[in-house]
Amino acid sequence: MKMVAPWMRFYSNSCCLCCHVRTGTILLGVWYLIINAVVLLMLLSALADPDQYHFSSSELGGDLEFMDDANVCIAMAISLLMILICAMATYGAYKQHAAWIIPFFCYQIFDFALSTLVAVTVLVYPNSIQEYIRQLPANFPYRDDIMSVNPTCLVLIILLFISIILTFKGYLISCVWNCYRYINGRNSSDVLVYVTSNDTTVLLPPYDDATVNGAAKEPPPPYVSA
């Protein structure tokens, strides 16, 4: 008979490169943490030296301002919030605190929903891609090459690219969710399931309950020789 815990029966505890879901979640949290830290440093640099990221109206193709103080402050607040969420997820996976992973998991769901909304928009309004490309500045890299592509092929290429991104994001969501279930199961009661060869299961009670029930039974009568 093979003894397995119940939280290991209905999902996988391994992710990409055959590492554990805890390790994968820690690496994912550290990766997001580094990215948001770099973005925060860039925003601080833009706030300290606005001329470094200043673009004229002719470069933008319209009367738009690229980075004003309000947009920089909002982006900095979002970056700080993301750093906090990623740090919580990394700490929760490392110290096996399942509740600390929930904010990062909610962010992943929100990001996946936004990406799905973009894919639906491209599918329902395919002409919006051409309109968006036309609004780009004339000196935008590969603008004319993109405009020369067949609109149908361009939509299919963008949908394929978005589908690959959604698949990858869904895999990362499953990795974080499995890590949450694994940690949550490890922190719960240590009830074990014995799996026999004929696929029948026997659920064993916790050790404390078994010892209490066993102690409550009356001992057998003494042996009397004939």
UniProtKB/TrEMBL annotation:
Coarse class of the protein's main subcellular location: membrane
Subcellular location: Cell membrane; Cell projection; Endomembrane system; Endosome, Multivesicular body lumen
Pfam families: Mtp
GO CC annotations on file: cell projection; lysosomal membrane; multivesicular body membrane; plasma membrane
UniProt key word Transmembrane: yes
Keyword annotations from UniProtKB, A to Z: Cell membrane, Cell projection, Endosome, Lysosome, Membrane, Transmembrane, Transmembrane helix, Transport, Ubl conjugation
Identification of the protein by name: Lysosomal-associated transmembrane protein 4B
Source organism of the structure: Chrysochloris asiatica (Cape golden mole)
Gene: LOC102811593
